[in-house]
Amino acid sequence: MCGICGAVNVDRERPIEPGLMREMLARLAHRGPDGEGIATGQGAALGHRRLSIIDLSEAANQPLPNENGSVLGVVNGEIYNHRELRGTLEGLGHRFRSRSDSEVAVHLYEEHGLEAFDRLEGQFAIAIWDGNLETLVLARDRMGEKPLYYHESTSRILFASELRALLADPGIAASPDDLAIHHYLTFKYVPSPSTGIRGIRKLPAGHLLHWERGRASLKRYASLPRPQEAREALGRGGGGSDETLADQVREEIARSVAGRLESDVPIGVLLSGGIDSAIVAYEASRARGGRLATFTVGFDESDYDETRAAAAVAAHLGTDHHPLRVRPDVAAALPEMVAHFGEPFGDSSAAAVWFLAREVRRHVTVALGGDGGDELFGGYDRHRAIRLYGELGRSRASVLGPLLSRVTGSLPLARSRRSLVGRLERFVQGSAMEPLEANNTLLTVFSDTEKSALYTAGLDARMLDIDSVNLLRRFYADAADPLDDILYADLCLGLADQLLPKVDIAAMASALEVRSPFLDRDLVRLALALPSRLKVGRRRGKQILRAAYSGRLPKRTLAGRKAGFGLPVDRWMRGPLREMSRDLLLDGRSAARGYFQRGTIERLLEEHVSGRANHDDRIWALLCLEIWFRTFIDAGASAASTAGRESAGRAAKDGAA
Fold it and tell me: Which of 57-61, 104-108, 446-450 has the lowest mean pLDDT?
């Protein structure tokens, strides 16, 4: 796990400026505190910051060459099937200089060209410079676990693991992409390939970019099969008992976890107390032998504190458990977080990952997590809501909505999203809609109507004819079961552009590598082939996971509902973040942008503080956006550079602790 960057000039006689590469790597230093490497050629340069995981020797330093140095590669991530691939490549005559999993990518490309990347099982962002063909190839893993950003101009292409490293090039002007901001306000993240800054793009999951002397072509090399395709490919059209399918799911998870435990540095499991991480801890304990280190972060707010549930799982498994108590200063940390993400990112749970990673990194360098379980097996509240909507039918739901509205309207005003009232309110929100449109509504931060009230007239005229939700609808295929479409869209859009970048950026800010066993290629294909009835029930999601691990995990864990990994932002917006939000969102600098109406923002803040409504998602999204403007658009590259160096210093200090 590392940070990578590079540049190639169209004019091959013009060398890459050494100062540019040094500055780009300085902005990635937090991702790789163990070493730095640069390889330069005629008009090309690759850079690497190393976080040593497998083969700690200098032989594994990057950039990595092939046998004669004509092909160079830099890799961020882990290749889990590297031993199998190495054996095949050695049989074909390739010679390796290290035990590194990353070196496999260079020789595999040398052997198979652009067909190499689909043979890799892992999480990765890879750059290959082919000196023979004078081409640059960028590739991102099929699920999107590792990010990769790039910028093309008439004179060169640059790439990096994080956006702000690209802004080390003084030729790149950071100007806002209004359409990306429009989409951000819908989803609280910017869907690929946009980033929020014009001219800077992110490589979509499962894609490669082939660049040759200023000509670039984007190609999808791996795609997720739609559920019906997965069933046909795996013969899951209805054959096999539920018990047999549960056994197969458990076998695939066990294999995936075992394959992600290789490490020459300390490794552990992030244990939230929920079923996904408990399953990962169970399988890791069985596969690893000896006592497994597990970690849980606890907060003072009882309804956001999962230490007790996690401790029960740890005691059941006999792990070396570390409950970590955190009292976060979010107001102080938020500007640094925004600088790391580089693009507008408004998922408040990123703060929870941020503080968790800082504490866990004091103990281990690698941690396994349960990310992807909700998307694969239907773990979100809205998945169960969609199931209920379908069973109730639209007419009955139309009656239920007003009834529940009257009930929730009589209850206390300060409604946490985790409270029963908060859950009922979200259920009511989509109860009178068709399932797919209800899902769209439940995912939306600002609807078109709310944007119309928020935008100034100029922005309103330019943007409101553009329906952001169409980005979601493109993954729908009018399946007989709407949940098939919804879960597929969750994997293709929300997972790749929101959840996985959140985990990578927030964890790697502290040089912590997180691995996600649920995202194994074969496990994903099996999960896609399963009927939704084995995933989403009326009362709980992840039905097949609960069946697969019955008798293996505590009953309370298997029966528990999803809590989600987050922070009490709704209360913070009435407390420690109240003044910060008002100061940043209502001052003259914010108003001068001409994006939003001051009166609408004042109303959102006042309604939230008074308890008449819960606007925590909206206010957090606007607050992060405003800090992003000040960091990248107003202050430019210098502020991002300063934040990066501060983070790198902290990561190095924490790693040595």
Answer: 446-450
Residues 492-499 have a mean pLDDT of 96
CA-based angle 359:364:370, to the nearest 5? 80
Task: Find tokens 């290959």 and name the residue.
Answer: 128
Q: What DSSP designation does 634 have? A: I
Q: Residue 391 corresponds to which amino acid?
A: E
CATH number for the domain spanning 17: value is 3.60.20.10
Amino acid (1-letter code) at residue 558:
L
Phi, psi of 195 (to 5 degrees): -135, -15
Average pLDDT over residues 64-75: 96
Please, which residues have CB within 8 angstroms of residue 189's CB and are 6 or more apart in sequence? 343, 344, 345, 346, 347, 497, 498, 501
Strand partners, 455: 596
Tell me what percent of the residues of the chain surpass a pLDDT of 70: 89
In a domain, residue 252? The reply is: yes
Which pLDDT score, from 0 to 100, does residue 414 have? 46
Q: Is the peptide bond before 193 cis (omega within 30 degrees of 0)?
A: yes
Q: Which residues contact 592 (CB under 8 A, 6 or more apart)?
A: none
CATH number at residue 548: 3.40.50.620
Residues 14 and 115 in one domain: yes
Distance CA 346, CA 501 (A): 12
Question: The domain containing residue 119 runs over which residues?
Answer: 2-220
- Please state whether the predicted TM-score (pTM) of the whole model is above 0.90: yes
The span from the CA of 470 to the CA of 416, in Å, is: 30
Residue 48 to residue 430: CA distance in whole angstroms: 47
Q: What is the pLDDT of residues 149-193, one digit of tens each?
A: 999 999 999 999 999 999 999 999 999 999 999 999 999 999 999
User: Is 209 inside any structural domain?
Assistant: yes
CA atoms within 13 A on the CB side of 533: 5
Residues 141, 283, single domain; the answer is no
What integer best gives the mean pLDDT of the chain? 90
Q: Is residue 594 helix, strand or coil?
A: coil
Q: Distance between CA 400 and CA 19 in Å, rounded?
A: 64
Rounded CA-CA distance 360/372 in Å is: 20
Q: How many CA atoms lie within 13 A of 555 on its CB side?
A: 0
Report the C-alpha gap between 124 and 101 in whole angstroms.
Answer: 11
Among 239-243, 274-278, 433-437, 607-611, the minimum mean pLDDT is found in 239-243
Are 37 and 52 found together in one domain?
yes
